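$ ./design --mode recover --in tokens.txt
reading tokens...
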């Protein structure tokens, strides 16, 4: 039926259920019509009314449609219940998509075990489904079953090259396992064709770096940062690490400072900065302190520098920790309502074993 005909049918069925509220089949047809019209909010109550009127021998398709509708509405618990009921009733020849929808609902509910079981049932019937292999691979990866996840993710990208999240996850696995050539072979074509996002490029750069091709990795990261200053944090961290390893400390610190502007609480950026030679780091911090001034606008800078100095101290309780204390004290005085300033100040006090003062600061 054409959309116009379905809409007319829905209007007719609305009239029927108003006149005959106990007419179960009319609710079934109305729910199906709303589903075809892309109106899940109207479809769901019609299907529920049907199932309420036919509790003993319902048409299994009502549960199937309700399950799909609830997934669309984000009502995943109801979706899972409806799809389970459908699969229980339709054992001989169920709609295979019911398994995939059930797996998706379980994933949203955080039920990894049942999600994996549903996806495997789907894959037994649709073994070449890239999305299903990708979803199962992601579940296994989250469960730290790396080898099993790798197998599923490899199948995902084999059957469906558009599975970009699967490709990125697989690239990370390859890099983690030391299979950098596989990671590069997987991710380089997407980069060359312009299909890769910055996260994929960051993984590719990591692989290139691990292969020893520092120049190519730096070129890729620098191009991304020039095109998009709001790049993912890992792009900044890797770019800074390459510059540091090349001895270009000024460039490394520039990447750190730019990254801090976007990701002000990044331990990775802090660790990168404090890995630089001490005299270089202290000169850079001193320059930034002088630029910071005492205006309210300087608070974020003071917090960032206080964090860096505390990290640079590395438990020695030396001059850098005293400087951190001084900067963070300035921050909370300039902006006493700034919770992040008090939090960092409290951490600094804890590092100095000033526990009671730290508790007071952290409570603010």
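writing sequence...
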């Amino acid at each position: 039926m054409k959309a116009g005909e379905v809409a007319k049918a829905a209007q007719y069925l609305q009239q029927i259920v108003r006149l005959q509220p106990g007419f179960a089949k009319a609710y079934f047809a109305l729910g199906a019509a709303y589903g075809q019209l892309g109106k899940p909010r109207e479809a769901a109550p019609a299907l529920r009314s049907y199932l309420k009127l036919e509790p003993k021998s319902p048409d299994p398709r009502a549960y199937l449609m309700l399950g799909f509708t609830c997934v669309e509405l984000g009502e995943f618990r109801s979706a899972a219940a409806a799809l389970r009921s459908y699969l229980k009733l339709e054992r001989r020849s169920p709609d295979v998509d019911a398994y995939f929808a059930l797996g998706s609902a379980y994933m949203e509910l955080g039920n990894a075990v049942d999600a994996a079981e549903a996806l495997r049932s789907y894959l037994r019937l649709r073994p070449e489904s890239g999305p299903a292999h990708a979803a199962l691979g992601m579940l296994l990866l989250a469960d730290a079953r790396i080898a099993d996840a790798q197998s599923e993710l490899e199948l995902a990208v084999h059957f469906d090259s558009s599975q970009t999240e699967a490709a990125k996850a697989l690239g990370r696995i390859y890099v983690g396992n030391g299979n950098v050539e596989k990671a590069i072979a997987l991710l380089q074509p997407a980069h060359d064709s312009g299909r890769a996002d910055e996260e994929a490029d960051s993984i590719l750069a990591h692989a290139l770096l691990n292969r020893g091709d520092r120049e190519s990795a730096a070129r890729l990261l620098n191009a991304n940062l020039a095109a998009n200053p709001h790049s993912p944090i890992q792009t900044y961290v890797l770019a800074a690490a390459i510059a540091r390893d090349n001895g270009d400390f000024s460039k490394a610190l520039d990447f750190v400072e730019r990254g801090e502007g976007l990701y002000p609480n990044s331990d990775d950026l802090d660790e990168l900065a404090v890995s630089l030679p001490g005299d270089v780091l202290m000169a850079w911090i001193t320059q930034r302190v002088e630029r910071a001034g005492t205006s309210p606008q300087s608070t974020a800078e003071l917090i960032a520098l206080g964090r860096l100095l505390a990290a640079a101290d590395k438990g020695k309780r030396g001059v850098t920790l005293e400087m951190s204390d001084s900067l963070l004290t300035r921050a909370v005085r300039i902006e006493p309502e700034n919770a992040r300033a008090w939090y960092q100040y409290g951490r600094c006090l804890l590092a100095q074993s000033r526990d009671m003062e730290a508790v007071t600061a952290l409570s603010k």
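exit 0
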